[in-house]
Amino acid sequence: MLYLLPAYLSENSPKSAFAPEISEIILNVDHYIVENEKTARKMIKFYCPEKKQPELKLFLLNKNSTNADLKEIFGLMKSGTDVGLLSEAGLPCIADPGNIAVKWCHENSIKVIPINGPSSIILALISSGFNGQQFTFHGYLPIDKSEKRKKLLELEKLVEKTGYTQVFMETPYRNMPMIEDLCSSISGNTLLCIAANINDPNSEFIKTKKILDWKKNIPELHKVPAIFLIGK
After folding, report:
1. What is the CATH code for 120-231?
2. What pTM does this model have?
3. By 3-state DSSP, what share of the chain in percent is helix, strand and coil, each rounded to 5?
């Protein structure tokens, strides 16, 4: 079996917010497909402190990985070994390369079991006040300033034309340039939601305002995990 295990969005998230079955699964599973070994070990310790770290066998999967890179762990699954899949944050396979492993499992009759957990994208959407019936997630926008501005204008037009909420994210250390580009590129009357540090009881920040109001008071979100939404 392949267990799709949720990762916390904040290290300050209360353990009580997660299903008890996560700890039980981790206690009984030694093999994991992960994006980052250090983060995965912290996550496993958070859920199940009694799990012996030396027992863990971690296999790295990133955006450049191929089936060939996971040949060993795929072979173990074929022989009956249960495996856990852990993202860097939130649910696996959303803004995360884990779908490579999931697709292989479907092609090789390995049972896939998703476990409930938080998704920053969905939590931001339901907290925004925007259309949750139709929306599009774009992942990361272009880094080049002119290309990014072109994309932002395109997303704004999509909102005006279709009413669909447009959702995207940025690398935390580029949040401030993103906010500045939003404020300088799109109409002052366009609504923008910024959802940052979701699930952190001490510093969660979720606000929806017009661009002209954001310009008056730009929040300091450097190196803070954030989701951006343009909508109606």
Report:
1. 3.30.950.10
2. 0.90
3. 40, 20, 40
